[in-house]
UniProtKB/TrEMBL annotation:
This is NADH oxidase. Transmembrane segments: none annotated. Pfam families: Oxidored_FMN. Keywords: Flavoprotein, Oxidoreductase. Residues 22-355 form the NADH:flavin oxidoreductase/NADH oxidase N-terminal domain. It comes from Bifidobacterium moraviense.
Amino acid sequence: MAHETNGTATLLAEPLPLPCGATVKNRFYKSAMNEALAGRDCAPTDAHVRLYRTWARGGAGVLVTGNVMVDRTQLGEPGNVAVEDERDLAMLRRWAAAGTENGTHCWMQINHPGRQSPITINPHPLAPSAGTVDGGYGRFFAEPTELTREQIRDIVRRFATTARIAKKAGFTGVEIHAAHGYLINQFLSPLDNRRTDEYGGSLENRARFLFDVFDAVREAVGPDFPVAVKLNSSDVPIAVKVNEKGSVPGGFSEEESIWVMKQLETRGVDLIDISGGTYAKPVIQTNAGAAEDRRRGVYFTDFARRVKGELTVPVALTGGFRNAGDMERALGEGITQMIGIARPLALVPDLPNRIIRDGWRGSVDLPRVTTGITALDKAFGGILVISWFEVQMNRIGRGKRPDPRIGGLRALLFAVRQHGPAALAPRRRRGRQ
């Protein structure tokens, strides 16, 4: 990291009022990363408490947890927390208390993986439609069972229950995960959703499940509790060939995403967290480090500019923010109201304080994650980078400092030691048929 200081980041320090009436103290939005800290019981741990206390003291306005699954039989990644009842309420309260120190909001991200659940974790996944996954990664995912209407209603109820427990535990908001190829995203995408009932076909029908979940969650937590939604801009991963409409042929398009956002706005969403990509090339799974970051810049800015004139609800833009200049520029242009940051905070947990309080004007350069063995890097590229950042979060959760010198091979060994062979299965699929 470069070490320059120059003035105060005033835009980043401004509070943000939300539609529900809550106020966030500044514009730093710690986006979700799977902490991989839960044990086989899917319960939060002391490591969650230490990690989120460190981040809260680091100065962010909002901390969004990693995936908290609404069904402990349907997990998306090794080490997921699952909340389907109050059995872990005492530890959830400790987690929430730590994450809300220093006037910080701590929002629980609630999710269901659908078919995006590795076979080593779940041999019986559920999805909007049945169908195998093609390509080399297909062997890592079991063929899902198509959800019945009764099962859909049960999952909607589970989202509401998890949100209610989050509020009871002391979390100050929830984020519904409707992106990155998980269950709600599967309903939205016609590439996954081939249903012919009221949950399939037209966009209105494909969005019905998301709207049912949102309405149930809002009813469970009340009108004055922040409810955010993480939504794909489209099914487009960065750097893939798309058609003239900016979408994968047959996939969830930017036009459809904007329509869904407008509907969520009328339903009372408090913030929309813009993301994107599919299983073909998830945008967060690159191990190229700072060089790739500089080439790509801030993710999804073109789409955010399109959304700017369409919505009044606050937007969080995540991906590629590495320095205060880019952050202030995005806020100043009005293309986002919150600066989403994830991986840099696994290396510099107090980055918000450094920028707002200390006037730091340097850049967080993420390292290129490599095992030093080309074949391993190629085989486990996405898993490698995820595991490397999980190592850093694990260190913070054990009261240690992050260590950017750790190599990729050590990250893979750590993942296997923590989670067994399941850790080496891809967390997201690569294609479908």
